[in-house]
Amino acid sequence: MQFTAGRRTTLALTCGVILGVCAALTAGALADRQALPARPPEGGLVPGREGRAFAEVYARIKTEYVDEVDDHALMEKAIRGMVAALDPHSAYLDSSQLEEVRLSTMGAYPGVGIEVGGTGTAVRILKIMEGSPAQQAGLQANDQVVAIDGTEVGADLAGALARLRGPAGTPLHLSIRRSTSPATLEFELTRTRVEVHSVTAQLLEPGYGYVRISTFSGTTPGDLRNAVLRLKRDNHGDLAGLMLDLRNNPGGVLEAGVAVADAFLESGVIVTADGRTEDARFEMDATPGDLIDGAPLVVLVNAGSASASEIVAGALKDHGRALLIGRRTYGKGSVQTVMPLAHGGAVKLTTSRYFTPSGASIHGRGLTPDILEEGAGAAPAELPAAGEAPLAARDADVRLALKTLQQRTAPRPASPAARPGVP
């Protein structure tokens, strides 16, 4: 997937953004489509009266605002404000933000394999990617990033992200503060191509598999297939049932979400979208083939399940392929398109609203589970390491879903034999 001037990419964006070095949790692409030439609105690019009002406000700011404002900065703020005022999901992207979106669609990036986040007072490591240079060097989650290549970080998350990036093969020096060590720890790492995998899986008990998808990226469909194959191998045969966990999955690559739904459907509509332009109106359908050969499927959702997650859950629910268990989903039923601009930035606009196979819009409503649980619910428990209690023992939602799967697969008692003379 490439982002170049004159081309655009359609997105099913998340309801929130988790900033991290992995850059895989921000957004995603439906398809790489040729952009149509922009057409000016009726009456010219800017209506005369509004144009004069804009020019007057601009002049007032330039001459009378308490601080001098650079022309470039002022125009960028005007553009950002204009686009952001449309809806919560439309935005102007500068070159660095566009690069974040590009990286998020790839499922891989050059780096050291850490996800970082700001706490307001510091930048901390949230997650270490398995097999990454960071893991090999001994970095740990909750480590505070003090300095990068000798430059102090403080609470500047954006600055930390910019310094952590770099071409594969280049060195990186990190100064880390850890709660268990009184001294600052120093680490020498080398950036490499880091694969970001959003799918984890485990066999809960014989016959019953569990798959969690944390976000939808370009690698998700392949990772899902590999995860199901491993579950079947560990089970020494086909699965009796599968649990798909989409809790706290904010969305991502729309095409990846469609592929996940398709993995469990033999036919039928997965999602449709409607918008003002021809490109904004589309329908995506399932193709033959079911990863688990029709075995019972349950999907865990909650208020953090949004966008592409809702496309998957809505398609599986509408086709009667899966039961939804948990809490009402977020309710983001719009599609965004990233349109690169000539100067290097881009505008991300809401261009479509999508609908489930039954024709329902979940925008602002969300999906109501078949088995609706009360309360906000706890965060999904992490998969247990060796020696830890099983996942179902630590996660009430998983426990309920497993019980539901077992009830759906339990053999039904045989009908009593008919007595002689009784029809």
Task: Please explain how this structure is put together.
By secondary structure, this protein is an alpha+beta fold. The strands form five sheets. Strands 1, 2, 3, 15, 16, 19 and 20 form a seven-stranded antiparallel β-sheet that branches. 26% of the residues lie in helices and 25% in strands. Among the domains are: 111-195, Pdz3 Domain; 199-334 and 353-409, 2-enoyl-CoA Hydratase, Chain A, domain 1 (Alpha-Beta Complex). The model is unreliable at 1-8, 12-43 and 417-423 (pLDDT under 50).
Keywords, please?
25% strand; single chain; 10 helices; seven-stranded antiparallel sheet; 423 residues; alpha+beta; disordered C terminus; 2-enoyl-CoA Hydratase, Chain A, domain 1; Pdz3 Domain
Give a brief outline of the structure.
By secondary structure, the chain is of the alpha+beta class. It has helices at 48-64, 71-84, 95-104, 133-137, 157-164, 220-235, 254-262, 308-318, 391-394, 396-409; strands at residues 7-11, 32-34, 91-93, 108-111, 114-118, 123-128, 144-148, 151-152, 171-177, 185-190, 192-195, 199-205, 208-213, 241-245, 269-275, 282-285, 297-301, 323-326, 334-340, 346-355, 371-372.
| CATH architecture tag of the domain at 199-334 and 353-409 | Alpha-Beta Complex
* Rg on CA atoms, Å: 25 Å
End-to-end distance, in Å?
66 Å
How many strand units? Answer: 21
Could you tell me the CATH topology label of the domain at 199-334 and 353-409: 2-enoyl-CoA Hydratase, Chain A, domain 1
Superfamily (CATH H level) name of the domain at 199-334 and 353-409? 2-enoyl-CoA Hydratase, Chain A, domain 1
